[in-house]
Specification:
It holds the Pfam family EF-hand_8. With 167 residues, this protein is mostly helical. Helix content is 54%, strand content 2%. Bound molecules: calcium ion (CA) (2 copies).
């Protein structure tokens, strides 16, 4: 055990979790000092064919370097654990939707996220309509984007169960 474990951002995760994360990271990457690329990341989480994998990668890749460091993986684990509040979950979801990371969700981003979530449910035409009515209903300040508050209202209205553990 090096002194990696004593860094402050690891404190919220247990030793057991840290050990597991370390083992997994080492197995895939061979070293704790280099970063996982998106392909390795998908393999690590067994997300091979999952279209959400890339989006998830961007959420975990906090500094946007295009690789996920061991530190970022641990932060991811820690964030999940501390995500007991609905507010925190909403923030993660918001980040998931906000692909370009500009802090607001465009029509295009809404469409993409909906398609990722359930591709088989949304043929093109339906999706367009759905996005349009979603924006009409929830873009309350009519700026063409969903801000965090507007997004939260959408999630609440969509019946998203934020108390479960699935995200
Ligand atoms: Ca955006
Ligand atoms: Ca808006």
């Amino acid at each position: 055990m090096g002194n990696v474990a004593s860094a402050s951002h690891f404190e919220i995760i247990s030793h057991k979790e840290l050990r597991r994360a370390k083992k997994r990271f080492l197995k895939i990457n061979g070293s704790l000092d280099s970063e996982l690329d998106p392909e390795d990341f998908k393999r690590a989480l067994s997300l091979g064919g999952n279209p959400c994998a890339e989006r998830l990668f961007n959420v975990v890749d906090v500094d946007g370097s295009g690789g996920v460091s061991f530190k970022e993986v641990c932060q991811g684990v820690a964030n999940r654990r501390s995500m007991s509040s609905k507010e925190a979950k909403l923030h993660v979801l918001f980040k998931f939707y906000d692909k370009d990371g500009d802090g607001r969700i465009s029509r295009h981003e809404v469409a993409e996220a909906m398609q990722l979530a359930c591709p088989e449910l949304f043929p093109r035409a339906t999706l367009e309509q759905l996005v349009q009515s979603t924006m009409q209903m929830f873009d309350t300040d009519k700026d063409g984007y969903l801000n965090f508050v507007e997004f939260s209202n959408l999630m609440k209205a969509s019946g998203m169960d934020l108390s479960n553990d699935r995200i």
